[in-house]
Amino acid sequence: MNDKHIGIITTVHNIKDDRIYHKEVLSLVKYGFKITMIAPCDGIPTDLPVSVIPLTPPQGKIFKRLLNNWLAFKYSLKINADLYHFHDPDFLPFAGLLRLLGKKVIFDAHENYRQNLKSRKLPKWTKSPLFFLWWCMENVVGRIMNYVIVADSYIYKTFPNKRIKVIANYPPLRIAEGIEYNRSLNSQTDHNFKILYIGGISHIRGIGRSLEALKFLDENYKLIVAGPIIDEELRIKLEENSKVEYLGFVPWEDIGKIIFPCQIGLILLQPVPAYLYCTGEGIVKLFEYMAFGLPVLISHFPPLRQFVERENCGLAVDPTSPQAIAEAIKYLHDNPEIRTEMGMNGKRAFREKYNWEKEEVKLLEVYREVLGSPNHKSES
Q: How far is it, in rounded angstroms, from Cα 334 to Cα 329?
């Protein structure tokens, strides 16, 4: 199996995307697969252990996204891989063509795309047709994939394909290697109590409510923000707020340096369809916070509340209430023993249960089933 050629396809994500490259691709390389990545990037990187066919970053333009999907399909045929593993719903029609040509194809669904459509600011008249179009692709094209991989157990329920598996977005254990961290009570002070927000910066992910919560906190509280800005009008608000330090996009390799100095991690997803039923396995930053012993402040949606209460690694709060958010932050600030205990619980749970090494085993099982092994019959 390990001499097989794998085509990894993404028309939207960065070539060093956390899930695609740092988890899945590096795991496949470790086990001897030959990898060709078709992905947006500037030029051809020379520091990666894989072959790369670059696509132009689409930058949100519809024409460029369509062109990228067509080019990705053309390059896919050119490399003639044993298996194609793609990561974007835009590519589903082309993946269907690959299947009709007899190719083996895996779809990796990172998010609940049905609910994402409902959550976007689109003209009302477009939502129903787009939702129906996605439903058709999911139920027609999705059925003919050799396998569907999903990032959480809620998305699992939306796909009709019988060959489906949850492979969560947990960080690899190496994320914390080489960083000495000490969250003992003696290492905490009241000066510059740092609250961390990492990930895509948008209103539906809670940055607006986080900024409003700062109004209820004094100048000793600082909000550290790292990630790409999705809603551009937020840039000015971040840069002009004296309680905010905006670090921009931070590469995955450096994320530990950002997390370590902070005291609380925020995950204040708003009650939109995309997040209301989120079960947590796909929230990368949740497990990154846990890896570094950072207690989390998370939206009080039932699955997320149950998770943090079960692991005792943080607090669930109403994400629409700036005052409730501020009160929860103050509570963790004023109770360092509880804060430290929650952080240590999260770190222990990450090491024992919620790490990529556990998910890597599942990924290899999928590949063995699709490609064929002594224990599995492959399906063409």
A: 9
Whole-angstrom Cα distance, residue 140 to residue 147? 14
Report the DSSP beta bridge partners of residue 361. none
| Backbone angles phi and psi of 244, in degrees to 5 | -115, 135
Separation between Cα atoms, residue 380 and residue 373, nearest integer Å: 14
Its pTM stands at: 0.86
Digit-coded pLDDT (tens) for 210-231: 999 999 999 999 999 999 887 7
Residue whose entry in the numeric block shows the structure tokens 């085993």: 361
**Strand ranges, E, within 160-270:** 164-166, 193-198, 221-226, 244-246, 264-267
Is the CB of residue 324 less than 8 Å from the CB of residue 264? no
pLDDT digits (tens, 9 = 90+) for 237-251: 999 999 999 999 898
Give the Å distances, CA to CA, from 136 to 6, 54, 110. 27, 30, 19
Please work out, in degrees rounded to the nearest 5, the angle formed at the alpha carbon of residue 53 by the alpha carbons of 111 and 163: 40
Task: Decide if 223 contacts 156 (C-beta within 8 A).
Answer: no
**367: three-class secondary structure by DSSP:** helix
Q: Which of 207, 206, 210, 249 is nearest to 226 (CA)?
A: 249
Q: Is 354 helix (H, G, I), strand (E, B) or coil?
A: coil
Backbone angles phi, psi at 140, to 5 degrees: -100, -60
Contacts with 121 (C-beta within 8 Å, 6 or more apart), sequence order: none
